[in-house]
Amino acid sequence: MIYCGIDWAERTHDVALVDDTGQLVAKRHITDDAAGYKILLDLLAEYGDTEENPIPVAIETSRGLLVAVLRTGQRKVFAINPMAAARYRDRHSVSRKKSDPGDALVLANILRTDMHAHRPLPQDSDLAQAVAVLARAQQDATWNKQQTANQLRSLLREFYPAALDAFAKWTNGLCRPEARELLRTAPTPAKAARLTRTQIQAALKRAGRKRGIEAEAERLREAFRADWAHQPPLVEDALGKQMLALLVQLDAACTAADDLAKAVEEVFPQHPDADVILSFPGLGVQLGARVLAEIGDDRQRFADARGLKAYAGSSPITRASGKKSSITRRWVKNDRLNHAGYLWAFSAITASSGAKAHYRRRRDDHGDWHAAAQRNLFNRMIGQLYHCLQKRTLFDENTAFPTELAVAA
Fold this sequence. Notes:
Number of helices: 19
Order of helices and strands: EEEHEHEHHHHHHHHHHHHEEHHHHH
Mean pLDDT: 92
Strand content: 5-15%
Oligomer: single chain
Structural class: alpha/beta
Number of strands: 7
């Protein structure tokens, strides 16, 4: 049997093929373009790669055009963690030497000796991969929006506390269109104090507000004209210009997050697993799409529910040595799925009486902290999700939390 290892880079890649004995049978240096990909596929075909019996490939990434080309057909592609590859490199050389062709050879030998210990990339459908791209992009845009809003809030605390006080009543605060429009209209507290009711009402209307405009304009006018400390005029104007620059970034981040959210709402319901995922309490379109993006739709990816729980980081891990033993949370996990699970459990507590009873039992009877109780609830519900996806059944409250519902009643 032949094994392939690829050390990838931005412009060129090194390829190594080894046989069962570890002997290097071929190596190539290819470019990152269509011509280089053709050379790679021809090289694999030369050494016995067929549609029925493809040569497995090890590479240190799970995305990109090169990986997409290699995943055509039934070929198994193994994404090896770079830290794991570095440990394997030390097995072959004690001098700590390193080269790109040598790394390709190390990756090929990883498959030759320990292919059973590594998982190939899941065979997700094209629709599931499209949902993953959009859901992850929307999640990144949301995080970027919040980061920019935090920077803007920190800047406003230095010279414009009246704006923070005026917008504190609104949900999402600085990310609301009304707040951004008012900051554009009056970038400094001195200009905000001179705004009239008519100007504030016009700004609210431009932002899309339909109701309670007059009362809100009066409240904002009083907040802007309250007694606040001020920076020197020149410094205040300079900080106002810096605030406008941050406001442009916040506008772009909010627009990107909203556009990607609409794209997710269009694509995610088309997936066959959407009905099962949305049947769970606490999972909406956006959060359900994030869950699907990380677990995929390859039913052979996880051997059982325990594997999925470990992948999500919800199940605890035991460390034992001699007479010492400790049970702690997992640190090595899928961070995106773990973050989605935290939001899922938080929403499920209010959306499901059984989930709320389970959470209260963990807090009251077992003495868990809030995060630990939520993680335990997420651990239980993601196991139920695995079962429902395998059996193609919808979530049932009485089946999921029979004891908790009886206690609650």
